[in-house]
Amino acid sequence: MSKTFMGWPAFPRAAETAVADEQLRTNVRRATRTIRGKRAALVEERPDWQDLRDAAAALKDDVLAHLDTYLEQVEERVTAAGGTVHWAVDADEANRIVTRLVRDTGETEIVKVKSMLTEEIGLDNALEAAGISARETDLAATIVQLGDDLPSHVVVPALHRNRSEIRDIFVREMGRHGRPAPEGLTDDPGELAEAARLHMREKFLKAKVAVSGANFVVAETGTLCVVESEGNGRMCLTLADTLISVVGIEKVVPTWRDLEVYLQMLARSATGERMAPYTSTWTGTTDGDGPGTFHLVLVDNGRTRALADPAGRQALRCIRCGACMNICPVYERTGGQAYGSVYPGPIGAILNPLLKGPDDPQTASLPYASSLCGACNEVCPVRIRFTDVLLKLRSDVAEGDAKVKHRAEKAALKAVGAVMDHGPLWNAAVRAAGTVGAAVPKGMKLPGPLHGWTDSRALPDIPKESFRAWWKRTEGGTK
């Protein structure tokens, strides 16, 4: 079975390991700074960029407000175009549907277009358990798969690897899964790309079944759209006899004209390109052109839970461009795997808790994986207010009724709140603090469970006289 994020530690422990890896930090820093520099230059070209952001956010909000209607329209249009629509409430159901569809073809090896959703639901492992080999075709996803690794970025899953590491993976693993790496392969990017091309060409020509995701689904016509940089997606979408697209229910846009807004923004935000080299669209099936059988699997897997959250639902606007990751100071220092999900960075810090609910200890730690600097707010092409959602989720952690939240912190805050609500008790506590403060040595570390606070902060000096006492003494309590 392929490696998964199942059982991943909470963010603080995972981040502690990640920041100690100097090579990882170098790889991530170099990649994110390169991408965000290219993005900034191309965004600057567009005097209407802020208008595009407004339009993109408004369109997504309209879709989310009428999602049931748009999804029914998608089903109607896809069916009319010769496709078959399936509905999956969660990962298990989605995996069962896709496994059954592949089994029905009799094939035991399929090819895949890079898809975060299929990573989210663990499709590769589900297919492997059923005796079906699913081979990734995107270069970065291939690197992750061959290296039995985990993705660290939504656009560039192998961003945490440098080219020497990639060369070693190709030499060691390619021959075990098909055409081996060429003799004498170096870490030259052109040679690495050619080795991957030759290895994957064999897969493309043999595969009868392909699995894809989709960046967008146009409700008006039932058209799906995949945006990519290498052409591997188009090979999968055109050469296979059967195409199975596994798509989150939030990926809908109302019309072709609305799609235009996002296509002007996605490549700029994701890879610093004016337009993606390959933008492929398909609607159902066409005799003699492309796959003869098309299945669309629409997946919820927590999305309606996120939709029901008034503050958090804006996370479903996300178009998976990765701009928030490339600008985030926390992501730059920890890399993506520390987040314990295929959705890392600021979007992962809000999306994972919204999708999975409040009772998972790993996801409960993610809203704290942020400095709240707000840089992610500024670069998001669909105007997600990350900091607002993070603060709301932190409040859920501290004050909510979930089974797995910071119970000690919650109890402490409840006790402090009770004292603050009781005037005489609060005044007595303030007077006592002034007395105790004089005896507290500078630089003291707090004891027990409170030590985490002073691990990264200096305990402030506690004044002998409170503000209330000073005010009463100097103003006579007349104002």
Automatic annotation (TrEMBL):
PANTHER family in UniProt: LACTATE UTILIZATION PROTEIN B
Name this polypeptide is given: LutB/LldF family L-lactate oxidation iron-sulfur protein
Pfam family, one: Fer4_8
Residues in 4Fe-4S ferredoxin-type domain copies: 308-338
Coiled coil residues, start to end: none
Signal peptide: none
Top-level taxon in the UniProt lineage: Bacteria
Keywords linked to the UniProt accession: 4Fe-4S, Electron transport, Iron, Iron-sulfur, Metal-binding, Repeat, Transport
Keyword check for Iron: yes
